[in-house]
Amino acid sequence: MGIDQCQGLFLEARPKTSSINYFLTKELSVSDTTTSNTTIKMYSTTWCGDCRMAKRWFDSHSIAYEDINIEEDEQAAEFVVKVNGGKRTVPTIIFPDGSILVEPSARELAAKFA
């Protein structure tokens, strides 16, 4: 388990079987992530299969989210790179509670809402 620093926030890596998961040990603010406190933000690309799966999962469970295409938003792309230790890994999903899932499986998404 490693600790990384991103924009003055400390991230605790929590290894999972199929994806990288991060939980922010400090609550995110609007200026840190360009997110509101009530909206799920999904950073994605159009070509990403995992992004399409996560969108289908949210849609099928009637869970609202904001989709941010990092190919069209340079600031969003920079944020994803910072959160993921220099990698443009998508989907990167930011939840209102400050937790982050990166490349989650359907099972991991379901567990988040259990």
From TrEMBL:
<dbReference type="InterPro" id="IPR051548">
    <property type="entry name" value="Grx-like_ET"/>
</dbReference>
<feature type="domain" description="Glutaredoxin">
    <location>
        <begin position="40"/>
        <end position="95"/>
    </location>
</feature>
<dbReference type="GO" id="GO:0009055">
    <property type="term" value="F:electron transfer activity"/>
</dbReference>
<protein>
    <submittedName>
        <fullName>Glutaredoxin-like protein</fullName>
    </submittedName>
</protein>
<dbReference type="GO" id="GO:0045454">
    <property type="term" value="P:cell redox homeostasis"/>
</dbReference>
<dbReference type="Pfam" id="PF00462">
    <property type="entry name" value="Glutaredoxin"/>
</dbReference>
<dbReference type="InterPro" id="IPR036249">
    <property type="entry name" value="Thioredoxin-like_sf"/>
</dbReference>
<dbReference type="InterPro" id="IPR002109">
    <property type="entry name" value="Glutaredoxin"/>
</dbReference>
<dbReference type="InterPro" id="IPR011915">
    <property type="entry name" value="GlrX_actino"/>
</dbReference>
